[in-house]
Specification:
Strand order of the largest sheet: 1-2-3-7-6-5
Strand content: 35-45%
Helix content: under 10%
CATH class of the domain at 164-264: Mainly Beta
Radius of gyration: 17 Å
Distance between the termini: 22 Å
Oligomer: single chain
Number of strands: 16
CATH architecture of the domain at 164-264: Beta Barrel
Shape: globular
Structural class: mainly beta
Largest sheet: 6 strands, antiparallel, barrel
Length: 288
């Protein structure tokens, strides 16, 4: 995992200047489309910090599904290993656990404009994926009215190899631009195993504190994954040194390469009122 960082450093960082966003080297069209060329009219959406949040030890973002309504309680997406309750054990799922955690909401330039507060951890796990979703005490409409900031939308489709992406860290106020290099059948790190993970090209050199950052498709502006780990030391399948395992069981170690967990699978699990329902059609997230 991209190790969570201590709260003391966090308070200093929020007072410092933001880091200018990086620029993506290439632009992809929509899902499954060919790369955009200079002759085409499709233009990428500007990727900035609006809607991202800084946690005490990680990054995150205010997110919505395509069917979320303005009056629904807003949701914050981060990693399961960023939860204040500690790392969930393999097989453990956290559901509807009360929480008063606070999040610093950032505007487009990376300036903290206000504090949002959780009412509960709606869902969290490190099994098959590495996600936490907090329900807030504020609605999307209230956040937009108060701060002029809209939530980021979760893409409902599987990400596409070669897509130009940006990892946006609210903790560091820093962005990382690269492409989806491919997908990993099983990504193993210590006691945990994640399925169908996103592997970045080498340009995304994410660091501790970027855990939970939204991975944004530059062409659509939608969230396609959540940043969570990378192989730091070249070790094999150990903490902070995930390894790739293919369908035949062959293990590959890629030192210096970083990874994210897809988020399209969250969408079918959220029903009316932004409530998680793990029995909804199409929902395959692990159950408690």
């Amino acid at each position: 995992m991209k190790k969570p960082l201590v709260g003391a450093l966090f308070s200093v960082l929020l007072l410092g200047a933001g880091v200018a966003p990086a620029t993506a080297a290439t632009v992809a069209a929509g899902d499954g489309a060919a790369p955009v060329t200079a002759k085409e009219t499709v233009k990428p959406k500007a990727v900035n910090f609006a809607g991202t949040v800084a946690l005490s030890n990680c990054s995150g973002s205010v997110v919505r599904t395509p069917s979320s309504q303005p009056g629904d309680p807003a949701l914050v997406l981060s990693n399961g290993h960023c939860m204040e309750t500690g790392f969930p054990a393999p097989g453990q799922v956290v559901r509807d656990r009360p929480s008063t955690r606070s999040f610093t909401l950032l505007n487009a330039s990376g300036t903290g404009v206000g504090t949002l507060r959780a009412s509960k951890i709606a869902y969290g796990t490190m099994t098959d994926t590495d996600i936490s979703v907090y329900q807030l005490t504020s609605t999307y409409a209230q956040i937009e009215s108060t701060y002029g900031i809209k939530a980021l939308e979760l893409n409902s489709a599987h990400p596409v190899q070669g897509t130009a992406i940006t990892v946006v860290s609210g903790y560091w106020k820093r962005t990382y631009a690269c492409n989806v290099d491919g997908f990993v059948y099983r990504l193993k790190e210590g006691s945990w195993t994640w399925k169908d993970s996103v592997r970045y090209t080498s340009a995304c050199q994410t660091i501790g504190g970027t855990s939970g950052s939204p991975v944004i498709d530059n062409a659509t502006g939608k969230v396609v994954a959540v940043n969570n780990t990378g192989n730091e030391d070249g070790q094999r399948c150990t903490d902070n040194n995930p390894c790739e395992v293919d369908e035949s069981g062959t293990v590959t170690v890629r030192q210096g390469i970083n990874y994210a967990q897809e988020t399209y699978g969250i969408v079918p699990c959220i029903g009316p009122g932004n409530q998680f329902d793990l029995n909804r059609a199409g929902c395959v997230l692990p159950k408690p």
